Amino acid sequence: MSVLGYPSDQADMDTTGHIGGQLTLLGGELKVCFVPALHGSTARKDDNSPPVAAGVPTGLVISIRNGPTIYHTGDTGFFSDIARVSDHNKIDIMLVCIGDHFTMGPIRAADAVKLVGPKMTIPMHYATFPVLTGTPEEFGKELKKRGVKTDLRVMSVGEAITI
Questions:
Q1: pTM of the model
Q2: 18-33 pLDDT per residue, tens
Q3: Inter-axis angle of helices 106-116 and 136-145, to 10 degrees?
Q4: For residue 12, is it within any domain?
Q5: Structural domain boundaries, residue 119
Q6: Is residue 162 a part of any domain in this protein?
Q7: pLDDT in tens, 103-137
Q8: Domain count within the chain
Q9: Contacts for 44 with CB less than 8 Å, ≥ 6 apart
């Protein structure tokens, strides 16, 4: 059985949440908190179906017991309350969209990183479509302009890192 195409065991009450909520998973080894993101959200049942509203987009704060806390911004635009994401958790790693056009570009992404203050920043959601023109190099320059102290880690497609 499935829910909108997702296996029902991956879309039940134990594994779904919403902004402000937190899931505790894997016997407490992992906590996932849903935080705001500003972006459109649609889904299609199949290639021939029209898009339908798919709920409120979110970012995620993922806390690993005895490990790092990771903030995945989701496909978001800049918003001032992004600074509040680090109120309850010191963010070790921030995955931040930099592509522009559909999400933040390098300028606003650098502002977001400055507000959140992560130890490491990994740019994402860029260079996958021609209209996504933001680059890690431009993002790095914007971080420097703002005096942001973060370890900028640019990853290659398929690359894995140990944290």
A1: 0.88
A2: 898 999 999 999 999 9
A3: 50
A4: yes
A5: 2-43+52-152
A6: no
A7: 999 999 999 999 999 999 999 999 999 999 999 99
A8: 1
A9: 50, 51, 52
